[in-house]
Amino acid sequence: MACRQFWASRAASYLRVSLFNRTFSAVIKDLKYCDSHEWVKVDGKSATIGITDHAQDHLGDVVYVELPEVGKGVTQGESFGAVESVKATSDINSPVSGKVVEVNEELNSSPGLVNSSPYKDGWIIKVEVSDSGELNNLMDSEQYSKFCEEEDSKH
Amino acid sequence: MAPLMNLVRLRGFPILQQLHLEERMLRTSSSNWCIINDGTTSPTVVMGLSGKVPELVEAKSVLRDHIPVIRRFTGGGTVIVDQGTIFVTLICNKDDVSDVQPFPRPIMSWSGQLYDQVFKGLADFHLRENDYVFGDRKFGGNAQSITKHRWVHHTSFLWDYEVKNMSYLKLPAKAPKYRLTRDHTDFVCSMKEYLPRSEFVERTIKAIGAQFSVKSINLESTEIPSSSQFVHTTRLLTEQELLDACTIQT
């Protein structure tokens, strides 16, 4: 077990990925996070959004993703779509406000990408951001890791 | 002090209206709600959010017999409900059930513990995968919807059922492992073999009362916005959609 943790830490460091010990859920250093377990990658006015490794692990196998229409407005903290897993539909909430410019159509045929690649191939929507100042309301990777550890330790 | 749970008791309430009410309660209310609907009206097929008619429903039969088909806002599988179905729905603020993480499996497990209390001493009750069973026979199906601060867990209980109605449902491609290859009649069982309807309802209310302060409310007094002011996800499928499914199935 100690050996596995050692190699996991080495790999994490190389990939610029954080691991927290209890669950081995990955957190990517350069992303921003909200307390409903979505991540956002911002590049100027463009943002890519998905759900975190912690979220996909707790949700179980995703069998369906309800995607919004391109052109729809999204608001920070409010729902824009849903994932279905086990017997549940779970809201996906937007970390930023703006307008949907692209959705990941691959998720229609391969919803499991949200589980297997939550930060890369499992991205959900891309948004044209309307208020960059809202990013200050989000957590960085360290704050999010701590948030997840605290949540998990309460239960 | 135990959090408040508003209890709405219905009988023979149409399932489409019940699901619409649940959606409005989940999205527009900040109170906890328990709905118990003792039997719905006529037989109705109810699919989960991502359900596909050609895979789950005998489209030709439902069209022939004018059986309504609903797609509901929660996840999960397909059921046929009628006067023999008892519905129990719990809509909770996550902070009022703070020892339960607002994710599918912890909520499911919590519900299993609740119904452990309901059936204690009466039957060999288990939560098996995501179903409620007596022994290895399913008598209750579950589904959930989870938002940022609230969640709904609802169950359709087979107090009794008509074997012929099961023929409107196809054998699902994805079935729980414990089902093995059993068809509907060997897989499900009815609660009426175990306890009277009224006793089930009273025991359920008592079990909920161990965790919440239960207050009975009339439907008219719920102060939930009317249907006309809300866009529901749950909807009745159109005749055209069922015809399209027929075409795929032939």
UniProtKB/TrEMBL annotation, chain B:
Highest classification ranks of the organism: Eukaryota, Viridiplantae, Streptophyta, Embryophyta, Tracheophyta
Organism the protein comes from: Arachis hypogaea (Peanut)
InterPro entries the UniProt entry points to: aa-tRNA-synth_II/BPL/LPL (IPR045864), BPL_LPL_catalytic (IPR004143), Lipoate-ligase_2_inactive (IPR053264)
Name of the protein: BPL/LPL catalytic domain-containing protein
One Pfam family matching this protein: LplA-B_cat
PANTHER family documented for this protein: BIOTIN/LIPOATE A/B PROTEIN LIGASE FAMILY, BPL_LPL CATALYTIC DOMAIN-CONTAINING PROTEIN
Entry-linked SUPFAM superfamilies: Class II aaRS and biotin synthetases
Domain BPL/LPL catalytic: 30-216
UniProt cross-references to CDD domains, sorted A to Z: LplA (cd16443)
PROSITE patterns, per the entry: BPL_LPL_CATALYTIC
